[in-house]
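note to self: dont lose this again. the chain is below, predicted strucutre after it. 231 aa total, dont forget to put it in the shared folder this time
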Amino acid sequence: MPAAIDFAAGIAGLLSSAPTVTALNFHNTPAYKAAEYDRQFAIIAEHFAPTTEDDLAIFLATGRWPQAKPGIVLAFYNGYRNNFDVIRPLLERHGLVGWFLVASGYVACPPAEQLAFGATRTLRTIPGEYTDGRYALSWDECRELDRHHVVGSHTRNHTRVSLDNPAALDAEIVGSQTDFIRELGHPVRSFAWLFGGAYGENPLADRHVDRAGYEFLFSNYRLQRLRGERP
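---
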């Protein structure tokens, strides 16, 4: 139980010092840690309100937060299959909303090639976790998450690109949005950089983010709302 106690102390610190909406980041979420995630989510649900993209849009546009509890953005990066198998049921048990920020090229990669794909793109897997060789979300799983949670882009290939290379930026930023439109039937609103800076730091990258039509940008230390007429 010490891990749960430490986590509770961390939550208390966030409540005393953080803004009304806090982001908490996860990556790989293996099954052997399921009980730990369950305890963490129980503590989070006690102290925080789940946050949707519409909730975040209102807060960032107006500064107003309508809930009695502060909001939390629970972000799950990269598009790992265990985010669906392990995390999704726990979130729903505790009435929480997950933000699944997915590298679309990883999802599109054939299972037989996913370990090699990940090895060159800092996508760490648990050896032997899935005997069928599929470590990434499937598009069907993305569509299921999209119905009840938030799905966003974490680039197409989870690879660092030169910020002065328009073709590479187009593929990673706009190309990923194209993948989501094709597979989900609509554009996604959120984009998360890989090792990335905030909007306004690189005009060329900003132009591609604008062209893709993303509304929210996750960078290393900021979550920005860029546009949108929705509430």
